[in-house]
Amino acid sequence: MTKEQAIKCDKILKQQSEIHKQNPKIVRVTCECGKRPDIRYAFRCYYCGVYFCKVCAGKHFGDSQEKQEMRSIFNPANMADGIKR
Ligand SMILES: [Zn+2]
Ligand SMILES: [Zn+2]
């Protein structure tokens, strides 16, 4: 595991424990920028497993082609898969 991957895993673990501590009806997740979007409106990277707010998701995926990919991956049905209730 590279250092970068280890940092990603740490983020995922933090977000996961954050999610599980909350009332399942109102779940907020902390983005790397410090914003806490409602998880229903957060974007989860399919590859990293990390949740982002809309702005950071855009940055994370970059422009044009990758954004198109983001739209197809991040529909609400797919996002719900990451949450065990
Ligand atoms: Zn953000
Ligand atoms: Zn990613």
Characterize this entry briefly.
48% of the residues lie in helices and 5% in strands. The chain is built from four helices and two strands, in the order H-E-E-H-H-H.
What does this structure look like?
It is a single chain. The chain is mainly α and 85 residues long. It has one domain. The chain has four helices and two strands. The protein has helices spanning 3-21, 54-61, 65-73, 76-80; strands at 43-44, 51-52. The protein has a two-stranded antiparallel ribbon. One zinc ion binds next to helix 2.
Roughly what fraction of the amino acids lie in strands?
under 5%
Main pleated sheet: 2 strands, antiparallel
Assign an overall shape.
Answer: globular
Task: Kindly state the percentage of residues in helix.
Answer: 40-55%
Can you list the ligands bound to this structure?
Answer: zinc ion
Strand order of the largest sheet: 1-2
Rounded mean pLDDT score: 79
The count of strands amounts to: 2
What structural class is derived from the secondary structure elements?
A: mainly alpha
Ranges where pLDDT stays below 50 over 5 or more residues in a row are none
State the domain count. 1
SSE string, helices as H and strands as E: HEEHHH
Distance between the termini: 29 Å
**Measured on Cα atoms, how large is the radius of gyration?**
13 Å
What's the number of helices? 4
Features:
85 residues; 4 helices; binds zinc ion
What is the secondary structure topology, with strand pairs?
Blueprint: H1 3-21, E1 43-44, E2 51-52, H2 54-61, H3 65-73, H4 76-80
Antiparallel strand pairs: 1-2
Bound molecules: zinc ion (2 copies).
